[in-house]
């Protein structure tokens, strides 16, 4: 489906029209349905299964990350637009810093016997 | 600051041989992406604080006792649907249908307002049960994180109402087009942040 989005962007470029947001209705509907499924799965995993705690945490965080990626492509059209993808570069740097802050904080605080 | 934007603009224009005005609008969309990245950092630090402090309930209520499952599940689906309808608003804009565009923005704003309403209701119930922001480190981190997201949604609502008025007055122009593009990015971003609140705060809280 992301191929389709890229195709739509290429189309806009060829005709030299407005090149922002050429998402199609189909892309939005598919993105919406996938997002609902990816929201229902964690609910079922947490409330309906007897998986162990670590398994549940890994599953629901994986679902959240997949949904982040789905929404970036289907709703936010991250691949569209002309020229170098400065927005993608900025986003990757930002997400890297977020992961370092969150994982680093959790890691270092787990060594602090007074806090834990 | 202005100088830097102009520099970037002229380089970009030279590269793509595009209309100056249009290019400046797309530079502003890029600028907004960079704002969203900095907003990611803000939420990242608040998430880190929450994850570190969530066990520190100081004898007070825990997330498992406080979070009401129907409430946060409803909030999740409402915000997800509003993210979808803001996308439909952009589609209507691309077709040049200004009334349809305003219609979808109204639907988005109503869903956003019900989200904020549910969240305020949730906060009021928690405070009435004695779970105040000052009760424990867990609740301080919780109210700061979830409240910052709620504040973003509330600001987005005011912004969206302002844009509807502007669309009524000016119609779809390159400038209003860019503004709608930007607010829809903002709205999708808030939904993405909520997915992580839903997963890390609420689902892991009630486990």
From TrEMBL, chain A:
- Recorded topology in the membrane: Multi-pass membrane protein
Which example biological process does GO assign this protein? Answer: aerobic electron transport chain
Tell me the leader sequence span: none
Q: Where in the cell is it found?
A: Cell membrane
Q: Recall the GO molecular function terms of this protein's record.
A: cytochrome bo3 ubiquinol oxidase activity; proton transmembrane transporter activity
Q: What Gene Ontology cellular component terms go with this record? A: cytochrome o ubiquinol oxidase complex; plasma membrane
**Cited InterPro entries:** Cyt_c_oxidase_su4_prok (IPR005171), Cyt_o_ubiqinol_oxidase_su4 (IPR014210), Cytochrome_c_oxidase_bac_sub4 (IPR050968)
Q: Which residues cross the membrane?
A: 27-47, 54-76, 88-109
What UniProt keywords apply to this chain's record, in alphabetical order? Cell membrane, Electron transport, Membrane, Oxidoreductase, Transmembrane, Transmembrane helix, Transport
User: According to its UniProt record, where is this protein mainly located?
Assistant: membrane
UniProt entry tagged with the keyword Protein transport: no
**What family does this chain come from, according to its entry?**
Belongs to the cytochrome c oxidase bacterial subunit 4 family.
Stated name of the protein: Cytochrome o ubiquinol oxidase subunit IV
From TrEMBL, chain B:
Task: Tell me a GO biological process for this protein.
Answer: aerobic electron transport chain
Which residue ranges does the record annotate as region Disordered? 1-20
Q: Which keywords describe this protein according to UniProt? A: Cell membrane, Electron transport, Membrane, Oxidoreductase, Transmembrane, Transmembrane helix, Transport
Q: An example Gene Ontology cellular component term from the record?
A: plasma membrane
A Gene Ontology molecular function term for this protein is:
cytochrome-c oxidase activity
**CDD domains documented for this protein:** Ubiquinol_oxidase_III (cd02863)
Domain Heme-copper oxidase subunit III family profile, chain residue ranges per copy: 30-206
The record, for InterPro entries, names: Cyt_c/ubiquinol_Oxase_su3, Cyt_c_oxidase-like_su3, Cyt_c_oxidase_su3-like_sf, Cyt_c_oxidase_su3_a-hlx, Cyt_c_ubiqinol_oxidase_su3, Ubiquinol_oxase_su3_dom
Stated membrane topology is: Multi-pass membrane protein
Q: Which residues form the signal peptide?
A: none
Q: Where are the transmembrane segments?
A: 30-52, 72-94, 101-118, 138-165, 185-205
- Superkingdom field: Bacteria
Family listed: Belongs to the cytochrome c oxidase subunit 3 family.
Q: What does this protein do?
A: Cytochrome bo(3) ubiquinol terminal oxidase is the component of the aerobic respiratory chain of E.coli that predominates when cells are grown at high aeration. Has proton pump activity across the membrane in addition to electron transfer, pumping 2 protons/electron.
- Subunit structure as annotated in this protein's UniProt entry: Heterooctamer of two A chains, two B chains, two C chains and two D chains.
- Indicate what this protein is called per its UniProt record: Cytochrome bo(3) ubiquinol oxidase subunit 3
| Organism listed in the record | Paenibacillus sacheonensis
Q: What are the top taxonomic ranks of the organism?
A: Bacteria, Bacillati, Bacillota, Bacilli, Bacillales
């Amino acid at each position: 489906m992301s191929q389709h989005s890229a195709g739509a962007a290429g189309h806009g470029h060829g005709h030299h029209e407005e090149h922002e947001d050429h998402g199609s209705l189909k892309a939005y509907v598919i993105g919406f349905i996938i997002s609902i499924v990816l929201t229902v799965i964690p609910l079922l995993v947490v409330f309906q299964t007897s998986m162990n705690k670590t398994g549940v945490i890994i599953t629901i965080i994986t679902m959240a990350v997949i949904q982040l990626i789905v929404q970036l492509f289907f709703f936010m059209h991250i691949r569209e637009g002309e020229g170098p993808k400065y927005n993608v570069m900025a986003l990757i740097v930002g997400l890297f810093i977020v992961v370092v802050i969150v994982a680093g904080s959790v890691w270092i605080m787990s060594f602090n016997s007074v806090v834990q | 600051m202005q100088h830097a934007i102009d520099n970037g603009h002229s380089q970009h224009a030279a590269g793509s041989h595009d209309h100056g005005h249009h290019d400046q609008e797309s530079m502003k969309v890029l600028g907004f992406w960079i704002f969203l990245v900095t907003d990611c950092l803000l939420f990242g630090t608040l998430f880190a604080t929450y994850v570190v402090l969530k066990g520190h309930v100081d004898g007070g209520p825990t997330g498992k006792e406080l979070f009401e499952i129907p409430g946060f599940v409803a909030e999740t689906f409402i915000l997800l649907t509003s993210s979808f309808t803001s996308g439909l608003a952009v589609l209507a804009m691309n077709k040049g249908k200004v009334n349809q565009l305003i219609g979808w923005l109204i639907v988005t704003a109503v869903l956003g307002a019900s989200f904020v309403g549910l969240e305020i209701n949730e906060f009021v119930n928690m405070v009435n049960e004695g779970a105040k922001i000052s009760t424990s480190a867990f609740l301080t981190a919780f109210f700061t994180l979830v409240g910052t997201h709620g504040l973003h949604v509330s600001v987005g609502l005011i912004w969206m109402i302002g844009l509807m008025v502007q669309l009524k007055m000016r119609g779809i122009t390159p400038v209003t087009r860019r503004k709608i593009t930007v607010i829809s990015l903002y709205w999708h971003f808030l939904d993405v942040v909520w997915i992580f609140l839903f997963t890390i705060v609420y689902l892991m809280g009630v486990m």
